[in-house]
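Supplementary material to the annual report.
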Amino acid sequence: MELLPQALVDGIMLGAIYIIIAIAFSLVYGVMHVIDFAVGEWIMLGAFGGYYLFQWTRIEPLLLLPAVFVVFAAIGYPLQPLIHRVLSGRRGNPLLMGLVFTFGLSLMFRGLAQTFFGFYSLSIPSRFSNGSFFFQNGGLSVTISSVRLTGLVYALVITGILNYLLKHTDFGLGVRALAQNRDAAGLMGVNNKRTSAYVYAIYVGISAMTGVLIGMILSLSAKMGPDYTTFAFFVVVLAGMGYLAGVPAAAFLLGIIQSFFLIYLDPGYTLLAVFVLLYTILLVSPRGLFGKGV
Amino acid sequence: MKDRRLSGHLLVFAAMLLIPAVVHDTFLLRVFTEAVMWIGLAVTFDVLAGYTGYLNFGHSAFFGIGAYITAILMVRAGWHFAPAAALGGAAAGLGALIAGFPTLRLRGAYFAIATWALARAIQQGVLMMDITGGPDGMRLPALLSPGFFYYIMLGVVGVTFFAYWFLLERAPFGLKLKAVREDEQGAEALGLNPTKLKIQAFVLSAVPTGIIGGVFAYWVTFIDPASTLGDLVSDQALVMVVFGGMGTLTGPVIGAVLIFTFKTVFWAYLSDYEVLYLIILGGVIAASVVFLPDGVLGVLPQRRKGVEDHA
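Predicted assembly:
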């Protein structure tokens, strides 16, 4: 029982990171109507990008985040026309073809990573890795490691920036218009292709940055991709596809599930629980916990 | 036209029956057996993906269920191989029936994610169970007869192929499935029952896959969750189908033969770089979706005309 507050706090800190992944993922789905199977691989590649950038420069990894973002946004940007080509055109089932395409990308990235980065589990050392805050109240005590707190702050900052971008800029207006009605937005002068390319670039960049954070808080390996793809799907499906307001609750739930299995149960069963819950939610309410998805 | 195609299929099948008479090299015969197995897995995958329009990212679950049921019955209950493999196929079919009823209500990407989650849940579950040997896998009694396994595999896949050919290309069932793929509500308005059709297709795809899994288990004599329930089984089937040509029976066969030949040559000469295979596999899927929307089949001139006739 004395571990309960610890499990909750750990879960919420971890969940904050998943919020970021899920928001970027939802954005791409809303604008481009593609479910990106490669999301976990972007996180993995980003984590390694951060790792090697740190090895090279020896700068505090948190300060490297913008660099990681720029590099990966530049990688993601030229991919969008390919996805656009797959989704339009005379193919029978564009949505499935988009899925197959990103799936192919994810296999490729995983293979590349295993070739060049090996199979070992690594972690990104940060100045914040060692420090922690300790709170005690009666019999209950909570330890918050500063690196996890950094993750929470990062999540808040990115959410704030995205919120500003979407609600207060012309670009964001265009994005929201595209998500609502692509044809009408096009008639109003929103450049579909360019906006989609920017959205995809931002999404890849954010996923990669989040990968660096995950590398700092937990660990990174060339095989981590599919797990994080699962987590992204989990959060997005539970929240309801395209329903951003549902994301935090779903993300915190995932974080708490993970920390509870780690502290109270066998962590080997975490994935099993996540898959079973994801499957059950899809069956019971495909539109998410709140029934507000697309 | 169609009868000429059938005689073509029969001719190829007859030629394949003769392979063990010509090929005496055990290694080569193993390669041929595995090629036949992948043809089977690609064709069964295509029933749902190509004909019905539902991407089943959990195809490996049927394969694994068949393999594990066969292994458990043979090792723990001392059954003979044939009834064990048949029961493996039945178990996969039953699984498809039970899982299909709720899962097939989901459309498009939701279905893909749900089957993926279910297959990975099954894999995680098998890893944790005692009866399956967990991560250590299971060892089956060995039978050293490459010819026997070639004929069994060819028999199962051949029967599957011709049953599919009749059901999907000759009987109205194939047209009904395509109607569901093109417009589910429209099909319903015409008096079809999409839910029933989809479940039938799901079971039709699952049963042979389970039997193939059972044959695979007895053939390689060792199975573990990664080799039978892992993503690679579904992934390769998907590549073969997309590369060969979705929604046809010949396409997956061509795709399976090409991809498998490539894989074998690759492993023979470049086995030091095994992960390169993943890169190439992924690259082939992504590139064929972009550049070959109808697969290799769509590039052949007279075939393209045939595809347009259907459309």
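The radius of gyration of chain A is 19 Å.
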